[in-house]
Amino acid sequence: MREGFRKELKDLKASVIAIGHDIVDVTRDAVRALVEGDVELAQRVIDGDSDIDARCLGIEERSLEIIATQFPVARDLRLLHSLAYIAMHFERMADLAVNIAKAARRTAGRQGPQTLYDLIQAQGNLVQRVLQAMLEALEKNDLEMSRKLQDLDEPIDHLFKQFFRELARLQDEEDIEWGSSMVLASRYLERIADHAVDIGERITYMVTGHFASCEDDEA
Amino acid sequence: MSDTLDCAASPAVEGAAPEVKITVRDLDFYYGDFHALTGISCDIKARSVTAFIGPSGCGKSTFLRCLNRMNDLIPGTRVDGTVLLDGQDIYGPGVDPVDLRRRVGMIFQQPNPFPMSIYDNVAYGPRLHGVKKKSELDDIVRDSLERANLWKEVKDILDRGGLTLSGGQQQRLCIARVLAVQPDVLLMDEPCSAIDPTSVQKIEDLMAELKSSVTIIIVTHNMQQAARTSDETAFFLQERSGEPAVLVEFGRTADIFTSPKDKRTEDYITGRFG
Q1: Which of A26, A114, B117, B241 reaches 20 to 30 Å from A47, CA-CA?
Q2: B272 contacts in A (CB within 8 Å)?
């Protein structure tokens, strides 16, 4: 029953997942642009943001239209509300990737200490792992995977702190300017992973109807 | 001699558990050999709106009629189990069904005003219960029509026939007629299915106003209406043809329509069957 309605929900979820895959790509590209000093790649990330913004807005609009016209309840309502919520997270994650790309533009042409490049690349790799897990949880309604996101996020936070410690060792003023951009990029990566963890909690609600504890966020 | 059910409701105490108006335990209902309902247990809270939902033939109207013994009027029916109104068994020996139906009034799908004036429709019940004084009847008629949100529309045509009103006005006249005998509970069996959307809105507004003084139970096929108007929702289901219907889930309406506990409830309200 309500086959057309079900197809709409399925298509909307597929659209959200497609945006999610693009978030994985732009985050990876932004980190690569930063580490390799690739200004062109950084610009492509920045230019692509308006498309992601428009698609995220489209998800929110379509969710509202379906809620207004189809009166969804229970799991259908939770799905629609959650998709709009996740799209909002994706829009912010893309903005953070743009911020990393802008840091890449600022730092390109200057070579800083290799340790910091290594740290940001390691952090970028861990963020990729969190994003992939989040997308898998979303695609498969996988509660176990969504619960793992918090654990996957922890080493990213540690790397961010380590980044700070390394930054403190810089002496040269140019290095400090460069390092400040890099530490901001590290902070943006950490925030992207935090969004993924929030999405994991939303997936738990979407599937079970119960909100996951927010205690960890407040700690 | 018949017992008169005590209609004094205890005042609500802040912070206390919500007062239960109707308690049903292990209710089974039979139309002759046909076992229509089984194992129904629930507590209906006082001064709230409770919605009964479920597919056609799931027994929700049958159960509603068990609550004021309307089914007694159908030959061959039988009720097992307990229905308590303010703690008193409505099927207990000596309970007068007519007195019970005054306390537990009913509104039907089709408005059914009597073929008499608007005034006489509303005054009918109080007159039957012995109110004779014109000024007292005038007050009851006005108060009941005001509570039914109909007074402004009919105050100048009270001597006109009730059947001359529109469908939505007729339904509110029927509500005023029930309110005139000061019921504790209002049973509404699909009260909006035969009237226009504006009148539906007026009746839903009316329910929200009345629930501060009356316990309302509504049977509705309109899921959005159940979600809009009720505080608690009961989902009934006859799983297989020939088997008695059961009460699958009973809970806060907000919970039922966002996170129902039972998969059968979820499948029904999301339109996967029914």
Answers
A1: A114
A2: 1-2
